[in-house]
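Morning F.,

Quick status update on the modeling queue. The single chain you submitted on Monday has been processed. Sequence for confirmation:
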Amino acid sequence: MTSIGGAGRDARGTAWVGETTVVACVAGAFLSLVVLHLIGSGTLDPLSRTISDYVFLPGGYALLGVAGVALAVAAIVLAGGLRRGALPDAGPPSALLMSMAGALALVAVFPTHDPSTSAGLVSTVHRAAGGWVLVVLPQAVWMIARRARTAPGWTAAAPVLARCAVVTTALSAGFLLLLLPIVIGLSPGFPLLGGVQRVLYAVVMLVLVVTARATRLAVEHMPAPAVLPSGVELRGAV
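C-alpha cells below.
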C-alpha cells in the first residue's frame, strides 16, 4: 500500500491523547492545591494570602511542586499538540507554551520568601517566573485563536479561544498590577489579592483544558491518509 496526504492521524487512525493528559495534569494540580488549602484552613486567609505563601505549611513545598510540575507537563503536551493538529505557523505559540512550562518548573523549585523577611534571589526567581507564566499564556492562546480562524478543524474553536485569551489577559494584567506595590515594597497591596489570584489560576487551568480540547478536535477532523491500491505507482515518484 502507498499512502498520500493527511498528517493528523496515522494509517491506523490513532487519535491525539494529549487532551486526556492535560486534563489529568490540571486535575492533579487542582487536587494538590485543594489539599494544601485544607492543611492551611484556619491558619492562612485565602482571600489575602497568595498561593505561594502556603509553601511554609507542612508539606507545602511538595504540594506546590506537584501543582507546578503538573501544569508544566500540560503546557509541554499542548505545545506538541499544536503541531500534531496542523495549526498554521505553530512554532511561536508552541515556543511560548514551552517557555511557560519552564517558568512553572522554576516556580515549583524556587519558593517565595517568608513575609516577615526581605525578598532574596530565590524569591525573585519565583516571582519573575510566576509573572512570566501569566504574561505568555494569554499571548499563546491569542496566537492560537488567530491562526485557528483559517485552519480546517480549528475554525469552530477560534471564537472560544479568543474569548479565553481576552479574559486571561484582563485577569493577568489586573493581578500583576495589584501585585506591583508588594514587589516594590511601597505598601501591603490589595487586601483581597489572594482571592483574585485564585480566580485567575482557576481560569488558567480552564484555558489549558479548553485549548487541549480544541487541539484534540483539530486532530480528529484532519483527513485520513488516502490509500492507493497495491501496484499503483505515483507519477514522478523516484
